Amino acid sequence: MDILTFPVIVGFSLLVAFVIGLAAQRLLGIRLGLLRLLATGVFAVAVGPLIMLAMLRPFGLPAGESEDLAHADGVYFWFALLAIVCTVLASMVFIVVVEAFAPLGSIPPALVWGRGLRGRFKRGRRYWQIIGISVRHGLAPYIRGGRDRALAVPSGRAQFGRSLAATLNQGGVTFVKMGQILATRKDLLPAEVTAELARLQDDAAPVPWQDVEAVLRAELGAPISEVFAEIDPVPLAAASVGQVHVARLHTGDDVVVKVQRPGIRPVVERDLDIAARLAARLEGGTRWARGMGLSALAVGLAEAIREELDYRVEADNIAAVAHAHPPGSPVRLPRVHQQLCTERVLVMERLHGRALRDAGDIIARLELDRAQIARSLLGVLFHQIITSGVFHADPHGGNILILDDGQIGLLDFGSVGRLDGALREALQRLLLGIDQGDPLAVSDALLELVPRPDEIDQQRLERDLGRFMARHVLGGNVVGVRMFGDLFRIVADHGLAIPPEVAAVFRTLGTAEGTLTALAPDFNLITETRALAGGYMAEQLGPEQIKQSVTDELAALLPVLRRLPRRVERIASAAENGRLNMNVRLLADERDRAVITDLLHEVLVAFLAATTGIIAVLLLGIEGGPTVTDTVGLYQLIGYHLLAISAILGLRVLVKVFRRS
Question: Which InterPro entries does the record cross-reference, listed alphabetically (predicted)?
Answer without folding.
Answer: ABC1_dom, Kinase-like_dom_sf, UbiB_kinase
